[in-house]
Every structure is written in C-alpha cells, then in structure tokens.
Amino acid sequence: MRRWFIAVLAFVSPMAPGHNLPAPSAIDAEVARVMRDTGAKGLAIAVIDDGKPVHVAAQGVRNAAGDPLQVDTIMYGASLTKSVFAYTVMRQVDAGRFTLDTSIADMLPQPLPSYASADIADRYADWSALDERWRRITPRFVLTHSTGFANFGFLEPDEKLHFHFDPGARYAYSGDGLNTLQFAMEKGKGIDVGAEAAKIFNELGMSRTSLIWRADFAGNLADGWDGQGKVEPHDERSRVRAAGSMDTTIADFAKFAAAFVRGDGLTRDSRAEMVKPQLAITTKSQFPTLQPELPPQQRRKDLAAGIGVVVFDGPQGRGFFKGGHNDTTGNTWVCIEKRKRCVAILSNDVRAEAGFPQLVRFVLGDTGVPFDWEYGTK
Q1: pTM above 0.90, yes or no
Q2: 172, 289 Cβ separation under 8 angstroms
Q3: Contacts with 186 (C-beta within 8 Å, 6 or more apart), sequence order
Q4: How many Å separate Cα 59 from the centre of its chain?
Q5: Cβ(233)–Cβ(223) below 8 Å
Q6: Taking a C-beta distance cutoff of 8 angstroms, is the pair 321, 310 a contact?
Q7: Distances (CA, A) of 5 to 21, 109, 163
Q8: Fold exhibited by the domain 2-84+208-375
Q9: Domain range annotation of the chain
Q10: pLDDT tens digits for range 312-324
Q11: Can you say whether the dihedral through the CA atoms of 363, 364, 368, 371 is positive or negative?
C-alpha cells in the first residue's frame, strides 16, 4: 500500500459539532475492513477537507499478477466522467459559447435526426427516429438527465433513441443524453470536448487523467474484477465519450474534487448553478432508468438533479454526489458544501460498492447521501 498524506494536522483540528474526521490510520483500517467484507481486490480513497486533499491512499492489487494498486495507478472513472463533462460545459457557458438554456437546434447547422451515418451512431448515438421534440433539448436538460431518452439507444428494440417523455419533464438517467450534447458542441460549435477537458486537467495538475486512452497509461494500469470475482482487462477507450470514457487516478481525482468544491475555474454563478436543485427526482431509485414516478406524497423532498451531480439536503446541510459503475468498476464521490469536505472512492472491483455507504459514513459522518436511491436498496 502506498499513501499520500497532505496537511494531516487537519484531522485533529476542531471540527463542526457532530463529526470529526477520523485519523488517516483509522480510515485505512476501515478501507481494509470493507475490502475483507466485500472481497474487493483494490480500493483507492481520497478525503478533502476545507477544499484541500488531506488523505489519499490505495490498498490491494491492480491486476491478477498481484501488482499493487497505487495512488497513481490508472483506474476507470466510469460515470464520474459526467461530472467532469458538466464542469467542462460550464466553462464554455462562462466563455459565452452558449447558455444552459440554448436549444441544441441553435447549436447544430442541420436537424439532429439528419445525422444518421453509421460512424455518427457508433461514436455518439442514433437520433434518426426522433420527432420534433429534439428541438427542446438544452444543455440544462441534458445535464439534469431530463432529455426523455433511455440510458443508451442500444437498449431500445431498434437501437435508436426515442422520447419516453417530453424534454425537461422528469429525471431519467441517460448517458446518450450527454453524448448528444457532446455532439452538438463538437459538430455545431467546433468545441473539442477532449481537448477542453485536457486543458482543465493540465490546469489542475492532473497529469494522469484523460477522456481518451493514452499509451503512457499502460505501465501502471488497473484491471477490474466483476461480481463473480472474474478479472477483466482495462478497456483502452479510443474515443472521447462524455458519458463515461475518463481514465484517472485517485491522486488526480482528488485534485479535481478539491477544485470543484472550492469553486475554482468557474464564475460564482456557474458554480452555484451546478449544485443548485434543478429538477426534483421522483423515482424510488436511480435504475432502471425509465421506472414509473412515485406518487407525489412518496417522493423525497431532499433529492434533486444538479448540473452533472445529484444534490441532497441532510444533517450537515447541502451536499452533492456522483457515482460511477460498470461490471468491474465501483466509484463514488460525495461532498458536503458547508465545510468543503468530500470523500472520493475508486475501486477496480465492483464488489466494493456494497461497502461504500458505511465507508462514506465512517469518514464524513451522517450526511444523508441517498445511497438507497443510488443503489436501489434500503
């Protein structure tokens, strides 16, 4: 195990009533317990306090050969990419390229359904079956998961995107919604999303993070374990995908989390917009995406979509979070606004997710983060 400690004295300084951050050794012990209990092979964690990384560590292995997982090991970011993309979008908003409420019809030179070639569908999505409601789609609707799309078009019987409700009407998670905005930015505005994200990574000193595979990642790379304990090689993603192509390290993502919670790189208004409740969330859980809405009296009052994150209100005030998941990956990022305090967890073993609620609670205390909604369990 390798560790990176910064400003460890922050752990023993006076904290807000109700919870003191545990000592680094206690956090490491809790991570080890979660790994034992879940069978997870590798787990990396970062703790942010007062907008600064104060503990970054990794335990376990990164591959079947038993090479150690380290704080600079490349790990799959999965849907944490969506938060980075949202931050990238807000930088373009601040630059005056478009607004959150600009119709993608005003961003593209021709109608969205007309872009239907095989290459377009492979890289982004297939919009050829959409009706005229596509003109209502805006960056705000995309980043609050309210486009009306399924998660991905390939899940539809004809593998094309369709509207299941009017854009802006309700929350329903959609990766292809984000890929649609990426297309509008690239095709309509000439904005290279991968390059713009790379500028951000450079500014923040995130030298081992990219939205597209880099050959220099190969020397210290995490493979993943699925729910049955089978190891799978790391996917070398050859195309930028706003929905989830990011590779990163826990040391790098700690820098992004710290900058985000401080509000660096954005205007005050844009940063506030990202963590403002934009749209009430009306379903019992996040997945399946197109599940029925709950009756109004059963809906949570403390849960809403922000811009690229989900926001909630809990015992420590306003917080936000974002998860990331595939068959061999479990990630989560939880922040409390009041103390600029976060925990980020990257695991190359999906089995680790079962331990995330307790691990986050151990570090941050009772936050009210809605893991029951996130994972669909009580």
Answers
A1: yes
A2: yes
A3: 192, 193
A4: 22
A5: yes
A6: yes
A7: 14, 50, 48
A8: Beta-lactamase (3.40.710)
A9: 2-84+208-375, 98-190
A10: 999 999 999 999 9
A11: negative
